Amino acid sequence: MGRFQGIFGIILILGLAYLFSNNKRKINFRLVFSGIALQVLIALSILKVGPVFRFFQGVGKAMGKLEDFARQGAAFVYGGIAVEQKPGTIGNYLGGGFVFAFNITAAIILVCSLVAILYHFGIMQRIVAVIARAMNVIMRVSGAEALSNVASAFVGQIEAQVMIRPYLPYMTKSELLASMSGSLACIAGGILVVYSNMGAQAGMDIAPMLITASLMAAPGALVISKIVFPETEESQTMGKVKMEVKSHYVNVIDAITHGAGDGFKIAMNVIAMIIGFIALIAFLDWGLLKVGQLFHLSFPLSLNWIFGKLFYPIAWAMGVPGEDVNSVATLLGQKLTINEFIAFKNLTDKAVPVLSQKGLMIVSIAICGFANFSSVGMQIGGIGVLAPERRADLAALGMKALFCGTLASYLSATIAGILF
């Protein structure tokens, strides 16, 4: 079966979306098929066309250079920190030692500053608008949801909604779900750089896979959300892609300072979540181990064991090789119920080993997104501030968005696995 095992995954993913659709008769199958075709085209272009693949490999190396540049700024603050590099040796941060909190803080701050500069000069808006127009023509979705989903591949899930703020009060529920789903299926540029460099530290070239995941997520989220919640209302932006967001920065210095400040807040939030979740996981694993011992189980009961069993069917259906299925299932569970940072940390640290190149590619794409329970709360709160009158709709659609965003990431990973 090999390569075509993933066909079962596509059937399962689309079948789940269809099963939970609130209006099966109104599903726009042209949109669904054109969106899947767009995902296939993106995956083929990056994974199979030599010059394109090498280009994105170069982009991955550029991401590595960004971390080098970020280290130059962080070295002034952290340069004297001693770190363990190899057993029996002590290095230092300035000399290339890796300290998770310091590295991710520096990288996120730098990327957020760069994005703010691009946003101030209108470059980011133009890039997003061009890609959104192409998606609007191919899939015939509304301008607001196309803009939001494409923007989510470059900026954070709340920042993407800022770009469509004028439309938020008037968007249909279907558009709102599509926009929320896209933000949960995609990953922000700053976080993408961090994950790429985490892989590079472990000798994994996952940058092209992460870029593939980010680009495939936008049409994928539209496909799944439009099956789950088909459009039945009249959209004010159907057929129109108009960017009305102007820079709110006074000048480029103001953009840099705000970008750096926002990046620091994001980095501190990431660090706090990781400390809290890892500590909580250790506590729960200790409790599960005791329960297992109480019932004389023949294996150490843990969250990883539970995740491995629960997500085993979907991991297999996605086309993961047999020797990797249990590990990939564990990472899928960690990403959905805890967060994607924990899953990527365990993948790149090889705490949950994935052995084959195909397994690594599928899981890298599948966990590359913000779709987890904590992100739903952040999204409802963040978008609720931008459009207070839609807070009730946001709360009602939150879990649907999590479902759609998760399935969109799985769909991208499955398609890529078939083409690999």
TrEMBL record:
Residues spanning the membrane: 6-22, 29-47, 98-122, 134-156, 176-195, 207-229, 266-289, 301-319, 360-387, 399-419
One annotated GO molecular function: symporter activity
GO cellular component, one term: plasma membrane
Subcellular location: Cell membrane
Superkingdom, taxonomy of origin: Bacteria
Record domain Nucleoside transporter/FeoB GTPase Gate: where: 103-199
UniProt KW keywords: Cell membrane, Membrane, Transmembrane, Transmembrane helix
Topology versus the membrane: Multi-pass membrane protein
Concentrative nucleoside transporter C-terminal domain segment(s): 210-417
Domain Concentrative nucleoside transporter N-terminal: 8-80
One Pfam family hit: Gate
Record has Nucleotide-binding as a keyword: no
Record PANTHER family: SODIUM/NUCLEOSIDE COTRANSPORTER, SOLUTE CARRIER FAMILY 28 MEMBER 3
Family assignment from sequence similarity: Belongs to the concentrative nucleoside transporter (CNT) (TC 2.A.41) family.
Protein's name according to its UniProt entry: NupC/NupG family nucleoside CNT transporter
Species assigned in the record: Chitinophaga tropicalis
